[in-house]
Design a protein that fits this description.
400 residues, mainly alpha, 15 helices, 0% strand, globular
Length: 400
């Protein structure tokens, strides 16, 4: 198959879309902290709004995969970006209404995010084989950069113009910057494949990959959603929390690119395992003892790096195991299993925080949420290591 060529144009276009799609929900913590400060709703409810939007990535995966094959990559790009930008603009009318935010930022933006995530996660794999990991890493790296820039930008906008106008400006930016990128999207292997391959449920490697990645999504959004609140509990200014979230997202971008490139060196399954190990160690060993800003910065860097690696390696793992033609179908099936983690991962952490006194009770109240997230990262790592063992059989040092 051709290696690169026009594929790099596709990578650049997908990177711009992912800048807003994934970067948007990775910067939700800034909006959440401001809404919590205005007593719009409890932390757990506000986290649920962000999680609802992200969960559509999983809930809509199979449907979106079929829709993308039906209408084509370019049309899917325009539709997804219109939903993301339009949803943000509509959120400006609901900035004081939790129910309205569930509809606009949760459902409408969520549908656009779901389609754009599915599109940009699978399209580059049609153009690459040897550099597939690097291509996917570049796309997901843009998402981390988006989270960093949007975190700082939203914090500055909120201080100057308020939450409502922040939603309007971000929404208009989505439409203005992603529509030109959508013009360059192009399918290379647009073939009709089954929406669901039921036979995969008899494949133990697929079952362990699906379970491991599904468990791994529960802790993914806990740090970015709660770092600004945790920083406030340390007595730091709100601007420090947004900068720390930006540090997390920059590190996430570097992790996406680095682990993506590592996929081409030692194999995508190995790279995914290493990313999960790093996330688990940072959640269990560093965050619980972060009683000052210095260790918290170290945690944000290490967890962001591993967190980003999870996202960028999954598409390469699927393509490595099942080939580029089946990647949309198999990836959508894996993605569907992430629904519970995306929907409940951060809210469960919010409920644990509220149960132990809330953000006003000091940093000790966050520890149950930390241990909850860290233990699930450990469980996820075990399943993915199992996939590697089943894939390599007796040769544990082979490329996988």
């Amino acid at each position: 198959m051709p290696e690169g060529g026009y594929g790099w144009v596709v990578v650049a276009s997908c990177s711009m879309i992912m800048f807003f799609a994934v970067g948007g929900f990775y910067s939700w913590g800034v909006i959440q902290a401001q809404l919590a400060a205005e007593s719009i709703a409890p932390n757990s409810t506000l986290a649920f709004i962000g999680s609802l939007g992200v969960s559509f990535i999983a809930f809509g995966a199979i449907f979106m995969g079929r829709l993308i094959r039906w209408i084509g990559a370019r049309n899917a790009g325009f539709l997804s970006c219109l939903l993301m930008g339009g949803g943000q603009i509509l959120s400006s009318a609901s900035s004081k209404n939790v129910g309205g935010l569930f509809v606009t930022n949760g459902i409408i933006v969520g549908l656009g995010t779901s389609m754009s995530f599915m599109l940009c996660s699978t399209l580059p794999s049609q153009y690459f084989r040897q550099k597939r990991g690097l291509a996917n890493g570049a796309v997901y790296g843009a998402a981390g950069i988006g989270g960093a820039i949007l975190s700082v930008a939203q914090s500055a906008l909120i201080r100057r113009v308020g939450v409502a106008w922040t939603f309007r400006i971000i929404g208009a930016s989505v439409i203005a910057l992603t529509f030109p990128a959508c013009c360059f999207l192009k399918d290379r292997l647009r073939r009709s494949t089954a929406t669901i391959e039921w036979s995969l449920f008899l494949d133990p490697r697929f079952v362990m990959l699906a379970l491991g990645s599904a468990i791994g999504t529960f802790p993914l959004l806990v740090p970015p959603f709660f770092l600004p609140l945790y920083t406030n509990s340390l007595g730091e200014a709100a601007s420090v929390g947004s900068v720390l979230l930006a540090v997390f997202n920059v590190s996430s971008a570097l992790g996406r690119v680095s682990f993506g490139a590592l996929c081409d060196v030692c194999g995508p399954i190995t790279s995914l395992s290493l990313a999960l190990i790093l996330s688990a160690l940072s959640l269990l060993a560093i965050w619980p003892v972060s009683s000052s800003l210095a260790p918290l910065i170290i945690f944000a860097i290490l967890n962001g790096f591993g967190n980003g690696g999870f996202f960028s390696t999954i598409p390469s793992v699927v393509a490595h195991m099942y080939g580029p033609i089946r990647v949309t179908t198999v990836f959508s099936m894996v993605l569907t299993g992430w629904a519970a983690g995306y929907l409940l991962g951060a809210p469960v952490a919010g409920w644990l925080l509220d149960a132990y006194g809330g953000s006003g009770a000091g940093i000790v109240a966050y520890r149950p949420a930390m241990y909850y997230a860290g233990s699930l990262s450990v469980g996820s790592t075990g399943f993915i290591l199992g996939v590697r063992v089943l894939t390599t059989k007796t040769n544990l040092f082979t490329f996988a």
